[in-house]
Design goal:
This protein is mainly alpha-helical and about 180 residues long. The protein contains seven helices and four strands; from the N terminus they run ααααββααββα. The strands form two sheets. It has a two-stranded antiparallel ribbon. Strands 3-4 form a two-stranded antiparallel ribbon.
Length: about 180
């Protein structure tokens, strides 16, 4: 390889913090060849932990508010999204059992409660597309599940309900754009 190419490899690794795998794809060679070139030119190689730092995800503990590194391996897998430690996780589970809630509960009543209100007060037809004879959902226009007034409740088929949440939510359907 020419000195210019070697300089570019060193710059990509040291300055731009690119991995040997990414650099190898750029120069159409193997990552071991890139490692060999870097070592031959006296470049200190990063450890696996340092190399992974740009991809690290941090979450906030739902119990204590501490920021922690999300982990996807071993025993910590169950804690990786919600809690920073086993102690916080146990406390969260205790609170959930005491309140008889599930992790994703955001308040309000069960879907069955809203379906009962819908059946007692509204027609069995989607208010957007007019479908009859399909599964119907109850939608709260103001997103407040405690407000069960008739002018706040819409009856929608499943597909219209999903589409409504998709167009209203800036993140897109189920959090995906």
């Amino acid at each position: 390889m020419t000195p210019e190419v070697i300089e570019e490899i060193i710059r990509l690794y040291v300055v731009d913090q690119k991995s040997t795998h990414v650099i190898a794809r750029i120069f159409d060679t193997s990552h071991t060849t890139i490692r060999r070139i870097l070592k031959a030119n006296g470049v200190k190689m990063r450890s696996h932990v340092d190399a992974a730092l740009p991809q690290v995800r941090y979450n906030t503990c739902v119990m204590c508010g501490k920021t922690f590194r999300a982990c996807n391996t071993g025993e910590m897998r169950k804690l990786s999204r919600k809690c920073c430690s086993d102690t916080c996780f146990r406390e969260l589970m205790r609170n959930i059992q005491l309140n008889n809630q599930n992790l994703n509960w955001k308040g309000g009543h069960s879907q069955g409660h809203y379906q009962r209100i819908r059946r007692e007060t509204k027609e069995e037809i989607c208010e957007w597309c007019g479908k009859i004879g399909c599964r119907l959902d109850t939608h709260h226009k103001d997103r407040n599940k405690a407000n069960n007034s008739l002018d706040n409740i819409m009856v929608l088929c499943v597909s219209c309900h999903a589409y409504l949440h998709y167009i209203e939510d800036e993140r897109g359907l189920n959090g995906r754009k």
